[in-house]
Design a protein that fits this description.
about 100 residues, globular, 4-stranded mixed β-sheet, alpha+beta, 3-stranded antiparallel β-sheet, about 25% helix
Length: about 100
Amino acid sequence: EDVSYLDRNTRKYENFASDRFDALARRRDAREKLARVAFGVSGSWFAVFKNGRWEANGVPDRLVNFVHANGSSPVEVSLGADDTYFVRMRDGEVDFLLPR
């Protein structure tokens, strides 16, 4: 599974999210190196690798569902407050949720 979710109200979540991102950022394999990273509120992040694979923590379900359904790789991601986001996929398709 590309996406990890744990209870945000526990210290375990914070440590997991931080440790997981640290491990991803320090990978030495060129195919698995980070290409883009978006940071959001409450420790959320979305990481895209050079090979098109991605991982995320604490991002909106709608964003995850769109990326899975699209089938291509995300090339641009922005995360905001209140589950707002923007994502552009390699095939040019976009999805977003704007602030109200």
